[in-house]
Amino acid sequence: MSQMNDRRPPMPPTGGPQAGPDGAKKKVSRIDPYARQRGPGGGGPRGPGRGMFLNAKPKNAGKTLLRVFSYFKYFKFHLIAALFLVGLSSVLHLLSTYLLRPIIDNYIIPGDTAGLARQLIILAIVYVGAAFASLAQSKLLLVAGQKITNRIRRDLFDRLQQLPIHFYDTRTHGDTMSRFTNDVDAIHMALEQTLTQLISSVITFVGVVGIMLFMSPLLFLITLGAMAVMTLISRVIATKGRKMFARQQSAIGEVNGFIEEMVEGQKEIKVFTHEQYAIDEFDELNEEYRDACVKAQFISGIIMPLMGNINNIAYALICIFGGFMAISGNFSLGTLAAYLQYSRQAGQPINQITNQVNMLLAALAGAERVFDVMDEEVEPDHGKITMVPAVVDDKGEFETDAEGAYVIAEKRTGYWLWKIPQEDGTFIYKPVRGDVRFEDVDFSYDGEVQVLKKISLYAKPDQKIAFVGSTGAGKTTITNMLNRFYDIQGGKITYDGIPLEQIAEKSLRESLGMVLQDTHLFTGTVRENIRYGRLDATDEEVVTAAKEANAHSFIHRLPQGYDTMIVNDGANLSQGQRQLLAIARAAVADPVVLVLDEATSSIDTRTERLIELGMDRLMQGRTVFVIAHRLSTVRNSNAIMVMEHGEIIERGDHRQLLDLKGRYYQLYTGQFELT
Prior knowledge:
By secondary structure, the chain is of the alpha/beta class. The protein folds into three domains: 33-374, ABC transporter transmembrane region fold; 381-431, no CATH class; 436-668, Rossmann fold. Helices cover 56% and strands 12% of the residues. It has helices at residues 35-38, 50-55, 61-69, 76-98, 100-108, 113-162, 165-169, 173-215, 217-264, 266-271, 275-327, 333-374, 475-482, 505-510, 526-531, 539-548, 552-556, 575-589, 605-618, 654-660, 663-668, and strands at 17-19, 25-27, 386-389, 416-421, 427-431, 436-443, 452-459, 464-469, 490-495, 498-499, 512-515, 524-525, 565-566, 593-597, 623-627, 639-644, 647-652.
């Protein structure tokens, strides 16, 4: 089973300034655990950063946008109503400004107090309507955005559960996690804010330009010139800003990566007394981050004053020319007042559209990453043979009816039958015994380097088969073939005479129990972690499994016993205790076939003896595959397979292999080390 956390060994402080060949300082590369998930200019561990919105670009924006919109089919009312309210709010804001023209010309200048009061009431209603429409569309899109991203997140997680192990083996866990955080958050921000603001800005811009042209084409030339200058400056600053924000995000990535590395490597730092070294290097990285932030924020900060001043200059010019036009009688004061308000509004949509387009593209880039995972091919499962509980008598024999057919139990009994469908629609049943055979099995992870070469072996029920050999010899790969984490390229594997690919994966894996070298414990109680092996296990069965694994004694001494909380992958337990819980988890699953992959590699000799006593009970009535570096744990195996370079070079029991005086003999006597 793939480990769901991305644990790395603590690393001593590396990096720091060193002189390069040219005498300039350079940094030794240091792994940044967030760099992969952010990408260029990413947002770091706190979520999407501003630099991300300036840099990320989707490969196929149109296709991705349509796919995101496809989620609105579940919330059509929200989308239609929100878009209508966005348009209504934008139109009402435009109308509120235009109403200044008749108010001044028809009521203020003539001195019509009653008419002015009526117009002010109408203006107030327009403002209230615009505010209500804006509030309502925000509420609708807030609800819809949360529901859509919730559904996207659920679909993404569902797909992850269906993906094969090689998907996780070829990707960093941080990168996978970023799909749920940075990328989905970017989608949510686009749905809740960016999309509506973009539509509103477009409507406002088109409306303002149209009304200004209608009011005075001559004055519009001044506004057009100002907008052209603002657009040009915006493009220049945005180009410069991309580089500055990219540097800022890179710098924060360096700082975050260094901090995490130092926190994980505190023991090494203190052992080698490198505290001052770490402080000095952090000061340098922190100073680089400060410098990058100052420059990036300066670029970001000057755009609004520049735009504001250009807008003020245009406003002054319009006042001058508009004033002369009003004095000459070619322009009313109401029209001039309304036009001046529109000139103030003309520059805002340009900046907003530019920013919102960048943010929308960033969100679509994140959506593409999410959909890339959703489009990954699921784990193939063409097996039709399933496992059903069987009825057994007091002697443990499978019961049959009067016609000699096996009797199926209504609930779990601990004994199982293979339910094999026939072409005529009927089924035949066959006891699950645990007879496993490999016949000339070939396998390669990448299609080029052969990891397993013509592997042939068999394991009968109740037998213990051990694999020994150097690291990389192919021992663990054999067990990965057994549970179909990977499919073989040549040969055949049978389980009770049934080709492995014909068995449904769920049934196949339910019949197997695995204890891996790297134990993963989930956040929860000790009881819940043991019960993870079989979720319907009772408390009594959990305790029984713990006793079988010899874990009960140490669990009983924990502060809350079986209700003790495990956090941070079992950081509050010793390695041996974590391994005992993993064995208890396998025991409660009550598998037919048990796989122990270096199950005692990280356990002290005393704990190992406790495990061996428990394992002797656990292995009774089961087929067991053992991978071990400690040869003392495999002496009582029925057969020991010595592997090198993907091949079985020796086989036999402990005594036979010692008499052979080959590689096993060298390993056992210490003449050759497992490396």
